[in-house]
Specification:
- This is Probable sugar-binding periplasmic protein.
- It is found in: Periplasm.
- Part of a binding-protein-dependent transport system for a sugar.
- This protein is of the alpha/beta class and 420 residues long.
- The chain has two domains: 169 residues, D-Maltodextrin-Binding Protein, domain 2 (3-Layer(aba) Sandwich); 208 residues, D-Maltodextrin-Binding Protein, domain 2 (3-Layer(aba) Sandwich).
- It has 19 helices and 15 strands.
- It has a five-stranded mixed β-sheet, with helices on both faces. The chain has a four-stranded mixed β-sheet with strand order 14-7-12-15, with helices on both faces. The protein has a four-stranded mixed β-sheet with strand order 9-10-8-11.
- Strand 1, helix 2 and strand 2 form a beta-alpha-beta unit.
- Helix 2 packs across helix 14, helix 2 packs antiparallel against helix 16 and helix 10 packs across helix 18.
- Bound molecules: beta-D-galactopyranose.
- The site of beta-D-galactopyranose has 12 residues, from loops.
C-alpha cells in the first residue's frame, strides 16, 4: 500500500509540473484551416499562406479535403460544426458565408477590418460577399474568372484553327480538332464541372441580363425560354466533344490533357492557369487563355476564409493573424500568382501578373461598368445552395443522358421552383 501511495504522489507532482509548465508556454496563434486546395497550383498557393502564417509566429493545422469545387469539403464542414467542433478558418464563399453567418456560426472581424481599412481596399462587390448585417465575417483572398477557354496552341495550329469568338466558331474548331484525332474538349464529368461549362454557355448565348434573370431572379419565363433551350442545345454539342473517359475525371487532370496536346481546349476557371504555371508553362507560348464567347461578359468567383466561432484564446489569436495576413499587399500578390486568380485587394501592382491575369483585371472593370459582370452559379457566388444544387443536378443529368433540351428546360424550371 505504502509503495502505491508513493507512486501516486510522484505522478501527481509530475503532472502538476507539466500543467504549470504548459501554462507558462507563450500563447501561440493557432489556426486549423479547412480547405480543398489540393491540386498542384492550389497546393502551392495555400503553402504560401501557411508559410506567411508560420513566419509570423502562427501554428498552422492543415485540414485539406480533396475534391475540386468544394462539395466534399462542405459535407465535412457541416459535420464539424454540428458536432460542436468547427475549424478555426474555412475556405467558403458567396451565399454559404451568409448562411453560416445567419446561423451564428461565424466570428466578427469588423474591429480588425476597421483597424486595417478593409473598406478602402476591398471593392464593394467583395464587401457584399464577406459582410453580414454590415459586419465583416470573412476575408476574401482572390478574384477568379470562370469563363475561360484554355487552348493548346500547337493543336490549334495543327488544324489551322483560330481562337473562337462565337459558339459557332467554337463548334467549328471542335469539329476540326475531332477530325484530326485530337479530343476537342478536355472535361471532368463532375456536376460542378458540367455546371461550369453550362454557365459559360448560358452567359454567351443569353447574355448577362438573361443570366441574372434566370439564376438570380429565378424568373420562370426566362428559365422556360427558347433561349434556355438553345443553351441546352449547345450543351448537347459539347457532350459530343469530350472523350469517353470523361466521367469522374478531376478538373486538373483535364487541364494536363491540354498541356500534353491530347486535347485542344478546356473550359475552366483560371485556377486551371495555376496548373499550367505550376508545370512551368508560359501563357501565349505553351497555352492560350481566351474568354469563352460572350458579349463582354465576366463570370466572377471569389474565395474567402470565414472564421468560425472558437473559444480557445490561441485559436482566436490565430484567426486574427490569418485574416490580417490574407489582405496584406505582398501576400495578395504572392498567393494570386500561384493560384491563377487576381488580387481581391485593390491597388496591388499588376507588374508581376501575366497576360491572362491582366486581361482578367481589365475585363473585370469593363464588364462591371457595362453591367455584363455576373456571379458564378457553379462556384457558389450568385445563387443559394439549393438553387445551385438544382442547376448542378439538371445540367449533369442532361449531359449524361439523351435528355432533350426541352425536357431539361422544363426540369430546370421545376427544380428551381422547388428550391426557392
Ligand atoms: C472553385 C474554387 C477555386 C478552385 C476550384 C477547383 O470553386 O473557388 O479556388 O479551388 O474550385 O477546386
Amino acid at each position: 500500500m505504502k509503495k502505491l501511495t508513493h507512486k501516486l504522489a510522484v505522478t501527481t507532482a509530475l503532472v502538476s509540473t507539466l500543467i504549470l509548465g504548459a501554462a507558462n508556454v507563450q500563447a501561440q496563434p493557432t489556426a486549423e484551416v479547412l480547405h480543398y486546395w489540393t491540386s498542384g497550383g492550389e497546393a502551392k498557393a495555400v503553402k504560401a499562406l501557411k508559410e506567411d502564417f508560420e513566419a509570423n509566429g502562427g501554428k498552422w493545422v492543415d485540414a485539406p479535403v480533396a475534391g475540386g469545387g468544394g462539395d466534399a469539403q462542405a459535407a465535412v464542414l457541416r459535420s464539424r460544426v454540428l458536432s460542436g467542433n468547427p475549424p478555426a478558418a474555412v475556405q467558403i464563399k458567396g451565399p454559404n458565408i451568409q448562411e453560416w453567418a445567419e446561423a451564428g456560426a461565424l466570428g466578427d472581424l469588423t474591429q480588425l477590418g476597421k483597424q486595417e481599412g478593409w473598406d478602402n481596399v476591398l471593392p464593394p462587390l467583395l464587401q457584399d460577399i464577406v459582410k453580414h448585417d454590415g459586419k465583416y465575417v470573412a476575408v476574401p483572398v482572390n478574384i477568379h474568372r470562370v469563363d475561360w477557354i484554355w487552348i493548346n496552341p500547337e493543336a490549334l495550329e495543327k488544324v489551322g484553327g483560330k481562337p473562337p469568338r462565337t459558339w459557332d466558331e467554337f463548334n467549328t474548331l471542335a469539329d476540326k480538332l475531332q477530325a484530326a484525332g485530337i479530343i476537342p474538349l478536355a472535361h471532368g464529368g463532375q456536376p460542378w464541372q458540367d455546371a461550369t461549362v453550362f454557365e459559360t454557355v448560358a452567359l454567351g448565348i443569353g447574355g448577362a441580363e438573361f443570366f441574372n434573370k434566370a439564376f438570380v431572379e429565378l424568373d420562370a419565363d426566362t428559365l422556360k425560354s427558347d433561349t434556355m433551350v438553345k443553351v441546352f442545345d449547345q450543351m448537347r454539342k459539347m457532350r459530343g466533344y469530350v472523350d469517353a473517359d470523361f466521367p469522374g475525371r478531376d478538373w486538373n487532370l483535364a487541364t494536363s490533357m491540354v498541356m500534353r496536346g491530347e486535347a485542344g481546349m478546356q473550359i475552366m476557371g483560371d485556377w486551371a492557369k495555376g496548373e499550367f504555371i505550376a508545370a512551368g508553362k508560359k501563357p501565349g507560348k505553351d497555352f492560350l487563355c481566351i474568354p469563352t464567347p460572350s458579349n463582354g461578359g465576366y463570370i466572377l468567383n471569389s474565395d474567402s476564409f470565414a472564421m468560425f466561432n472558437v473559444t480557445n484564446e490561441d485559436d482566436k489569436a490565430g484567426q486574427t493573424l490569418l485574416a490580417s495576413l490574407i489582405l496584406g499587399e505582398k501576400f495578395q500578390e504572392t498567393f494570386n500568382l500561384f493560384k491563377g486568380s487576381i488580387p481581391a485587394r485593390m491597388g496591388v501592382s499588376p507588374d508581376k501578373f501575366d497576360e491572362c491575369a491582366v486581361k482578367s483585371m481589365v475585363d473585370l472593370q469593363v464588364s462591371s461598368k457595362a453591367g455584363s459582370l455576373v456571379g458564378s452559379v457553379a462556384h457558389e457566388i450568385a445563387a443559394s445552395g439549393a438553387v445551385r444544387g438544382a442547376v448542378l443536378d439538371v445540367v449533369t443529368e442532361h449531359f449524361n443522358s439523351d435528355m432533350t433540351s426541352e425536357a431539361a428546360v422544363a426540369r430546370l424550371a421545376e427544380s428551381i421552383e422547388l428550391a426557392e
